[in-house]
Amino acid sequence: MKIVSADVIVTCPGRNYVTLKITTEDGITGLGDATLNGRELSVVSYLRDHLCPMLIGRDASRIGDTWQYLYRGAYWRRGPVTMTAIAAVDCALWDIAGKAAGMPVYKLLGGQAREGVTIYGHANGQTIDELLEDVQRFLDQGYRAVRVQAAVPGLESTYGLHGSDTGKTYEPADAALPTENVWDTSAYLDFAPKLMSAVREQFGFGFQLLHDVHHRLSPLEAAQLGRSLEPYRMFWIEDPTPAEDQDSFRLIRQHTTTPLAVGEVFSSIFDCQHLITNRLIDYIRTSVSHTGGITHLRRVFDLAALYGVRTGSHGAGDLSPVSFASALQLDLTVPNFGIQEYMGHLEPASEVFKTNYTFADGYMHPGEAPGLGVDIDEEAAARYPYQPRSLPVNRLRDGTMHDW
Ligand code: KDG
Ligand code: MG
């Protein structure tokens, strides 16, 4: 099963996606998501200029060896660009393996360990009332878990709010230069418990409640937040503090029993090792497309299982449907599955990516199509050319750069 071509498809059906397509001599194609939001073209170059030429002539069935060849062979290790590129190759090879075997990838990974994958959706609002309406919309659809974000009073913009016109994105639609947001920790710490209290008061405790702090607090502030949210029994708070200084999570842990989820910006098992083996987090958020693909993420999840840490993979809309399908295939099989994020994709994405996953009763299933279960329509992709876009940046009121 020799590889005869490896092509990179860049498209922007609502937002930019980079897809790797590998073709074998017998005409089987495999897809991998290579999207790194705001830095897309660096992965395009990594693939086109470096990895694609190395893939030609290789045996597509040697998935683990190819992973090691690309990882060790780079000499320069880890990092989001390298690991996203390797992830795309890895997922595409799993897709090919599934198609060659006539099975969905989850069957190659050991078969399903649950009937479906619990997902959480993103509810948001400019006001608490608007947020409550949005939560209701998710509960009406059958969601069992909802992430809530609402505008912090006094701030001009808040992370996690969708533009009402797009419904699913909260980033500037047309900016090559980052927009600048202003952040105020005090205003946020005042507001967050009021928000959760309103949600629990209106809807009770019959569903899982999640919230993303998006790296904004110091460890001590994160401890205060966690404690203030304890009455609302959160499923997790996510990224309460930036995770470079991993020992700082001990301080949060000492002060609160609110569960912690971290890892969407990590790119390897080594980034997760300290937090997991010291039991400093409850959920690991690494994603299949930013953490070396199915092959590597499976190792992260296995390490996490040893320490009672459960999975909660990143699934924002800037990860393509190929990524989401890959995540579902793995989620269905691992013993320590926790939850899967699902933000959905903007409407035009469905013209480009043809998916097989289904949603019912709060659960997703990847479907029974061989491989990952996603096809790409390259003519439709060409109708949506790449558009330079950036994630926002954040400053404190006095102008100091802060984490976004
Ligand atoms: O590209 C950045 C987004 O993926 C990120 O801001 C979304 O934090 C996020 C989440 O939890 O989905
Ligand atoms: Mg997040």
What does the model show?
The protein has 404 residues and is of the alpha/beta class. It folds into two domains: 3-104, Enolase-like, N-terminal domain (Enolase-like, domain 1), CATH 3.30.390; 108-369, Alpha-Beta Barrel (TIM Barrel). Helices cover 36% and strands 20% of the residues. Strand 2 and strand 3 form a beta hairpin. Helix 1 (40-55) packs across helix 3, helix 7 (219-228) runs parallel beside helix 8 (249-255) and helix 9 (269-277) runs parallel beside helix 10. The longest helix has 22 residues, at 80-101. It is globular. Mean pLDDT is 96; it is low at 164-170.
What is the count of helical runs? 13
| Corresponding CATH superfamily of the largest domain | Enolase-like C-terminal domain
CATH topology of the largest domain: TIM Barrel
CATH architecture assignment name of the largest domain: Alpha-Beta Barrel
Distance between the ends: 45 Å
Taking pLDDT < 50 over at least 5 consecutive residues as the criterion, the unreliable ranges are 164-170
Q: Outline the biggest β-sheet.
A: 8 strands, parallel, barrel
Number of strands: 18
Assign a percent range to the helix content: 25-40%
